[in-house]
Amino acid sequence: MTNYGVILKKIRNEKKLSLRQAALKINRGLGWLSEVENNKPRAKITKKEFDRIVHAYGANNDIRKHQLQINAIHRSNDCRVWYEGAILKHLRKRSNLDLKAAASLIGISLGYLSNLENSHKPIDVELRQKILYAYGYKATSYRNYTNKKSRLSSISVESRMRSLINNLDKQKLEMVFQYATELIASA
Description:
This protein is mostly helical. 73% of the residues lie in helices and 0% in strands. Helix 1 (4-14) crosses helix 3, helix 1 (4-14) packs parallel to helix 4 and helix 6 (79-94) crosses helix 10.
């Protein structure tokens, strides 16, 4: 998943350009730019196009700073990073599909789907959309799980923990282990 749209919006705001001004500056439609900035699934942007827009905004030197900021925000605040696989697994089970049938329906291998569901592999937006469609869900269903704690809590704690653990480096995993050990000892 790229953060191109989020970064472009941040740069545009820093340059004090309205959406209309920016669209004219980059020779693109207002609607397209809005969709890109808001990470709409229909809006596609290549690395080459992203670089062209950054250049048109006159922000070539600032791009690394923005990428690091955006990545840090997503890592700290976006539960999709941590729970994405658990959410997709939950939706697959709600659709009464076993792993083999789901993989066949999506057109990917069973092992690859398992890796996605267990957060061993990242899921890009296009593949997530394809999976949701195969399960009979829309993107809004997925967003409901990422934006509403009550929805997210319907996913088993075990699945959520597995996803979190699979996203931790060894040092942080050791810290979690030590904390869990202390919790058990104090009970």
